[in-house]
Amino acid sequence: MSIDRSSEPTVGVVASDWIKLFMVTGTIQEELAAANGVKGKPTKIGNFFKKHLDRPFRIQHAGLEGTAYLRFRKGSCRQKYYYFEVFLDTETDSLDTSDSPTSFEDPTSTVDTNDGTVESNSGNTEDWG
Q1: Angle at alpha carbon of residue 97, lines to 91 and 101, rounded to 5°
Q2: pLDDT-derived band of residue 9, with 50, 70 and 90 as boundaries?
Q3: CB 63 within 8 A of CB 81
Q4: Count of beta carbons in the 10 Å neighbourhood of residue 45
Q5: Does 21 have pLDDT greater than 50?
Q6: CA 107: distance to chain centroid?
Q7: Which own/partner contact pairs does 22-28 have at CB distance under 8 Å and 24+ positions apart?
Q8: What pLDDT, on the 0 to 100 scale, is given for residue 77?
Q9: What predicted TM-score, i.e. pTM, was given to this entire model?
Q10: Exposed, middle or buried: residue 122 (CB in 10 Å: 0-12, 13-18, 19+)?
């Protein structure tokens, strides 16, 4: 007999899928550099997340403000899928949104600068994979 899991939520990402973001942002960089083995880095990220679960974080994006909470859902074999639950403030009329971006942009796309030249946001040549 198999279990029908089609109705279970699919939100969240396992700790190993957060490694690249942590490396790019420099979050717990020393701990990640010292991590050994295949599960070393995901374990460090999981430990970091464990300390921050269910705590409110103030956020701002595109002229909106709100509160985000780090959450997780359990997966199979003790896996945890981490995600952020976001609650936007209702009083956003006082914010100036004239120069705020309306969406996230691809960081590797090209950008037109004020002087008419085009630059690439491709970053350095390091392989993060």
Answers
A1: 125
A2: low
A3: no
A4: 24
A5: yes
A6: 14
A7: 23/128, 24/128
A8: 87
A9: 0.59
A10: exposed
